[in-house]
Amino acid sequence: MNWTFVSSIILATVRMAVPLLFIALAELYSERAGMVNIGLEGLAAVGALAGFMLTYTTGSVWLGILCGALAGAAVNMVYAFATITLCANHTVYGMAINLLAPALASFIYRVFFGTGSSLMQITLMPGIAVPVLKDIPFLGQLLFNQTPMVYLAVALVAFTCVFFSKSKAGLNYKAVGEHPKAAATLGINVIGVKYLSCVLCGVLAGMGGAYLTTCYSTTYTEGIVSGRGFIALAAVIFGRWTGGGVLLACLFFGLCDALQIRLQVVNVGIPYQFFQMIPYVATVLVLAVVGSKKSGPKANGLPYRKEQR
Question: What percent of the residues of the chain are helix, what percent strand, and what percent coil, each to the nearest 5?
């Protein structure tokens, strides 16, 4: 245990936390409108494949990110139509997305690239170093020498905090998740806000998946999301449904992920499978300790019928 080891873990924590942050923000925007979407794993998987394929074929990482966002939004419309228009169970259709989307992504990958053993790879998004600030010892590399997606994630957190606490549109948005019938009496388009939340959820979750194949890994593999969708659900609960809280929760889970990777290469005589359990054990502990102390928006997961009083 030395400074090099600690600094490498801190730098890796930021890198690991970014995809979690995008996916957790997706769920935050969804739940604030009363839509409990547990299909984040599937949305991120589709976004990861779409981002990889567009980057591979066009050479543009930004087109890959955009396509990942659009793919996530398109797939999430299945969940939106079933739960908003048909008033179906949120959990059932969220799980259906988790089953459908990764299988669809694997099928498309095999059709597009074939079933050969060759590994398709792309060039990752380059980082942007802020002049002068990047030369600050340690903090320069941590805060001012990252990919644009890291800066975008932080900007989204700041926007989310202001939007939900300071703006009229954000307060109306939250009202749909708390008391949709009361919101409707004030002239708020409840159905429209719910559909908007599903679009935002799909876009952000797709971007989180695309980050994995354009900024983190040079290739797409089955299972690349590795449970991040479920960890993001825990991050929203741990973060108390706030932008700042979600950021801190994702940094915590990112730390757990970075720690388990570093411990695997340290010769301590313990099977590496025990270290791989760290992020998931942390998730279970967080849900057990924190999850029961505060519930989310009051109308979370409840169907909204305009004719029902």
Answer: 70, 0, 30
Q: With contact defined as beta carbons under 8 Å apart, do 233 and 31 qualify?
A: no
pLDDT in tens, 19-69: 999 999 999 999 999 999 999 999 999 999 999 999 999 999 999 999 999
How far is residue 306 CA from its own chain's centroid? 31
Cβ pair 251, 17 in contact under 8 A: yes
Tokens of 214: 């354009």
User: Length of the chain, please?
Assistant: 309
**CB atoms inside a 10 Å sphere around CB 17:** 25
Angstrom distances, CA of residue 108 to CA of 55, 100, 115, 192, 262: 15, 12, 11, 32, 33
The DSSP result for 217-283, as a single string, is -SS--TTTTTTHHHHHHHHHHHTTTSHHHHHHHHHHHHHHHHHHHHHHTS-SSS-HHHHHTHHHHHH
Which residues, 6 or more positions from 209, have their beta carbon under 8 angstroms from its beta carbon?
19, 23, 43, 44, 45, 46, 47, 48, 49, 50, 51, 68, 72, 224, 225
Q: Are 207 and 65 in contact (CB under 8 A)?
A: yes
Q: What is the Cα–Cα distance from 209 to 149, expressed in whole angstroms?
A: 12
pTM (predicted TM-score): 0.94
- The rounded distance, in Å, linking the Cα atoms of 271 and 210 is 31
Which CATH number among 1.25.40.180, 1.10.3470.10, 3.40.30.10, 1.20.120.530 corresponds to the domain 9-113+147-289?
Answer: 1.10.3470.10
Instruction: List the domain boundaries for the chain.
Output: 9-113+147-289
Spatial CA neighbour of 191 closest among 298, 306, 77, 73 = 306
- pLDDT tens digits for 87-143? 999 999 999 999 999 999 999 999 998 877 678 899 999 988 888 778 787 777 777
Continuous segment of H or E residues that includes residue 128: strand 128-129
